[in-house]
Amino acid sequence: MAIWHHASRHAPSLSLCSPACHVLDVLIKLKLVNYLAISNVADSMITSFDLNGPAVLTESSSALWLTLLENKLAEHPSGFNAAAERVLHWTMGKWNPSMGITGY
To answer: Please, are residues 45 and 85 in contact by the beta-carbon 8 Å criterion?
Structure first.
């Protein structure tokens, strides 16, 4: 759990976002953390992505969002649509097709 909390605090950092998101994603996918135990932090990342979510759009942040959404759907299906909408809003805020990826 300590690694989860440490990495989740670094996801909003421009310089540490990508490795932090990768660690978080791997911890969930390999079931090294119980999703129910970290669901509050995951929900916080989704609901207040500007403060607690990944700082930049990268492959690792996209993979983390997908993993969080998959777990959200499995654990709390009624909250999935709102969570997916927030993640889509975050993605559209970070990506501009004419300018490439923003945030670096």
So the answer is: no
| C-alpha–C-alpha distance, residues 53 and 77, integer Å | 21
Give residue limits of the domains in the chain: 2-101
Low-confidence ranges of the chain (pLDDT < 50): none
pTM of the model: 0.88
Long-range contacts of 74-81 (CB under 8 A, 24+ apart): 75/35, 75/36, 75/39
DSSP code for 63: H
pLDDT tens sequence across 65-86: 999 999 999 988 999 999 999 9
> Three-state SS for 30?
coil
